[in-house]
C-alpha cells in the first residue's frame, strides 16, 4: 500500500551567508506497508517520524529515495498523480484544536474534501457530511457548530470524519491521541481500531507512546535520528527487543506503581542534532553496548531476519558467523 | 415519517444554521457593552455618521457652506441663532462644521479603503509566496514606513498640487504600508497553521487556501486597524487642509477652516475652536471604537 525506498527528507536551514547547514530529518528510510495493516512508527521527539508522514503526503518536499502509494510511483507529482494521492491517502494530525479552521462550521470543514474532489453540493453534500459524522459517533447537531464549541475528543472525531470523507485507503495518523485527555484517548483509539477493521484501512500510526502502538499495530518500526534501527512484529519486538535503543525505550516506560523496578540506568543525554550527525552508528554516543573502534567508525549494517530487521553492529557479527 | 424528520434536520432554519454565529455575536455585543470607553467611541462614531447623513437637512444656514457672504454679521460670538458664532464673512460656523462631516467621512473612507485595497493583497502575497517576492514587497514597505507618513504626504501633494482629491491620493499612498506589515505577519503565522496543512493535504489549491483559510482569519486585525485608521486619516486630511494643501478655504473642511481661523485667534476664538473640537472628538471616537473592537476581536493582542 505504502512503500518507501531509501526516502530522504533534508531541510536546508542555511543562513543567507555562511556555510551550508542541512537538517537530515529523514535519512534513508525503507518501509513496506501491506494493504489493510496497521503499522506503528515509534521514536522520541526529533527522530523524524512525523516528517515521514508528511513526506508521504508531499507536505514536505522529498529530497531523495522513492515513494510509492497503492502501487503507484508518487515520488514526483504531476497534477493527475496529485489528485489520486489526495484521494488515496489522508492524514490525522496530532492537535485537533488547530487542525480545524476556527472560522468554519463543522459542516464546511468536513465538506471541504468533498467539495474539492466530488460534484456533491447542497443538500446532498450536507447529507453526506451528516452520514460521516454519524460514522464517527457525532449527531447532526454538530453540523452548524464551530470548533471552539467542541471538546478535544469531538474535534478529533470531526478530523477523522474529514479524513475518511473521500474513502481513502491509507490513513497517516500523527500522534492522534497525544493532545487529548487520557479518558478520551482510549475512546478514540478503540474507535480507530474499529474503523480500520470496518473500512479495511491501512494505518501508518506515528507515536511515541509504546502502549498505544502495541494496542493498535501488528508491525512496528523504531526510528532514531532519521533512520529505522529496528523493525518487526509488534509482539516479538516488544517482548524481545534487540537494538540497544529499543531496549532503552521499553525500559523508559513508567510502571503504574510507586516503587519502580530496577531496570538499569536510563538513556543519558539528548538526541544529537540532526544537523551534525555522529559518525558511524548514530546511537553510539548514548549506547550502553558501545564497541569502541567499531560503532564510532562504521555505519551498522541492516540485519534482516524474515520480517524483522535490526541495524546494529552487535548483530552484524552474529550474522557473519 | 422518518424521512420527514431527516429532511427537517438537513434543511434547518436560518437561526439553526447560524446558531453558532449568533451566539458569538451576542457574546461580542455583551463584552463590548460592558466596555465604557468603547461604547463612548461607538456613540461618537454613530453621531458622526448620522450628522454626515442628514447634515444638509438640519443645518440652519445651508447656503453658508456654498460661499454666501453676510459681512454685516461677521465674527459674531456664539449666541442662540449662531450656536458656534460666525466667521470673517458672516457664515455660520455651526453649519460649516456640520457639513464638514461629509467631506471628512468621505476622506476617511476613501483613504482607508484604498490603503486596504493596496496593502491587504500585497501583504497576503508577501506572506504566502515568500522568497524574493516577499523580500521585494517588504523592503519597499520598509522604505515607505521609514519616512513619516504626513511628511511624505506633504511631499506628494506638493508635487501634485494642492486640492482635496490630491490630498486623498497622497494620504492613501502613504497609508498602505501598515496593512502590508499587518497582513504579512498574520499570513506568515497562519500559513503554518495545521488546518492550512490539512487543507493542503486534501488537495486545496493555493488560491483556495488564501481565500478560504487565511483571509477570513485575518479580518479581525484588519477591521481593528481600519477603525483606528479612519481616525488617523481624518487627522491627516485636516492637517493637510490646515497647511493649505488639502481642501481649499471656502470649502467646509475642518482643517481648512482652522487654517483661516487661526489668524483670528485669540479674540475670535470660536471660529477655530469648534472645528478643532470636531476633529478631536471624531478622531477620539474612532480610536476608542478601534480599541473596543480589538478587545473583543483580538483579545490576545491587547497591549
TrEMBL record, chain A:
Q: Any idea where this protein resides?
A: Cell inner membrane
**Pfam families xrefs:** ABC_tran (PF00005), oligo_HPY (PF08352)
Task: List residues of the ABC transporter domain.
Answer: 9-250
| Gene Ontology biological-process annotations | peptide transport; transmembrane transport
Give the residue spans that cross the bilayer.
Answer: none
- List the membrane topology term(s): Peripheral membrane protein
A molecular-function term among this protein's GO annotations: ATP hydrolysis activity
> Does Plastid appear among the keywords?
no
Q: Does the keyword Nucleotide-binding apply?
A: yes
The similarity comment for this entry is: Belongs to the ABC transporter superfamily.
- NCBIfam families in UniProt: oligo_HPY
According to UniProt, the name of this protein is Peptide ABC transporter ATP-binding protein
Annotated source species: Thalassobaculum fulvum
TrEMBL record, chain B:
- What's an example Gene Ontology biological process for this entry? protein transport
The protein's matches in CDD domains, at most eight in alphabetical order, are given as: TM_PBP2 (cd06261)
Q: What is its main location?
A: membrane
InterPro entries recorded for this chain?
BP-dependent_transpt_permease, MetI-like, MetI-like_sf, OppC_N
- The answer to keyword NADP applying to this record is no
Superkingdom of the source species: Bacteria
Topology relative to the lipid bilayer, per the entry, is:
Multi-pass membrane protein
Gene Ontology annotations for the cellular component aspect, listed alphabetically: plasma membrane
* Residues spanning the membrane: 38-59, 105-129, 150-174, 227-248, 268-290
Per the UniProt record, one Pfam family is BPD_transp_1
Where is it located?
Cell membrane
Keyword annotations: Cell membrane, Membrane, Peptide transport, Protein transport, Transmembrane, Transmembrane helix, Transport
Q: Which SUPFAM superfamilies match?
A: MetI-like
- Tell me the ranges covered by the ABC transmembrane type-1 domain, including all copies: 101-290
Q: Which Gene3D superfamilies match?
A: MetI-like
Record family assignment: Belongs to the binding-protein-dependent transport system permease family.
- Record's protein name: Cytochrome c550
Naturally occurring in which organism (per UniProt)? Thalassobaculum fulvum
Its organism's taxonomic lineage begins at: Bacteria, Pseudomonadati, Pseudomonadota, Alphaproteobacteria, Rhodospirillales
